[in-house]
């Protein structure tokens, strides 16, 4: 009985000291987003899990490409094609096309670049990650210009930023831009200490995934909004309605696959020896 009494005392003290400790936002996010990060970093994914990753990754790419192709088909066959300011109605069609490329397909691939190319050196992966983000941002800006122009240049001007789609979409774009800015400064700007980069990483990952989820949600809202406006007979499920619904389902599948691949600790990229050399010789580590 004396042995049990001695064992219980330190347990109570440890519990009290643990609950009294205040964790920072980065630490809390690290707990939820990287539950087995240390284990995965040391051992790496098993061959079986890597094979599973390759299969799911390939399916994800196929679904993302299908979204862009079907979106282009919808615009070309049912919505009158593409133009610029000469025809505001079809100028708008650039918006869903470029958003599906930029904020969906490219955004998802920029998130997955570290796990999809796990055997590449970290510095080229950082540059690739930033480059894909930058390209997605260009597509997004042009898509926004097309949307605002099509509203403002219409014979009867259409109000801007009044729908739920526009609010959620703008939130996703703003978050995407802030992610790009802070990520560039933190991981590509020379002189930032490695300890600061490590502290910010869970925050960067969390808000990157959140921005992607918001982009998928905004796309679904916009898809439904456009379908209702463009199809008076939508309730009867015409061929165009079937096509729109298929695009919506693929958006959900693509979003789910990307989030699964980027958050499952089993698929975490294992650090390469070259990565350690890069940190050792970087200005931020000196």
From TrEMBL:
<feature type="transmembrane region" description="Helical">
    <location>
        <begin position="168"/>
        <end position="189"/>
    </location>
</feature>
<feature type="domain" description="Cytochrome b561">
    <location>
        <begin position="59"/>
        <end position="263"/>
    </location>
</feature>
<protein>
    <recommendedName>
        <fullName>Cytochrome b561 domain-containing protein</fullName>
    </recommendedName>
</protein>
<dbReference type="GO" id="GO:0016020">
    <property type="term" value="C:membrane"/>
</dbReference>
<feature type="transmembrane region" description="Helical">
    <location>
        <begin position="201"/>
        <end position="222"/>
    </location>
</feature>
<dbReference type="InterPro" id="IPR006593">
    <property type="entry name" value="Cyt_b561/ferric_Rdtase_TM"/>
</dbReference>
<feature type="transmembrane region" description="Helical">
    <location>
        <begin position="97"/>
        <end position="117"/>
    </location>
</feature>
<keyword id="KW-1133">Transmembrane helix</keyword>
<keyword id="KW-0812">Transmembrane</keyword>
<keyword id="KW-0472">Membrane</keyword>
<dbReference type="Pfam" id="PF03188">
    <property type="entry name" value="Cytochrom_B561"/>
</dbReference>
<dbReference type="GO" id="GO:0046872">
    <property type="term" value="F:metal ion binding"/>
</dbReference>
<keyword id="KW-0349">Heme</keyword>
<keyword id="KW-0249">Electron transport</keyword>
<keyword id="KW-0813">Transport</keyword>
<feature type="transmembrane region" description="Helical">
    <location>
        <begin position="242"/>
        <end position="262"/>
    </location>
</feature>
<keyword id="KW-0408">Iron</keyword>
<dbReference type="InterPro" id="IPR043205">
    <property type="entry name" value="CYB561/CYBRD1-like"/>
</dbReference>
<feature type="transmembrane region" description="Helical">
    <location>
        <begin position="55"/>
        <end position="77"/>
    </location>
</feature>
<feature type="transmembrane region" description="Helical">
    <location>
        <begin position="129"/>
        <end position="148"/>
    </location>
</feature>
<dbReference type="GO" id="GO:0016491">
    <property type="term" value="F:oxidoreductase activity"/>
</dbReference>
<keyword id="KW-0479">Metal-binding</keyword>
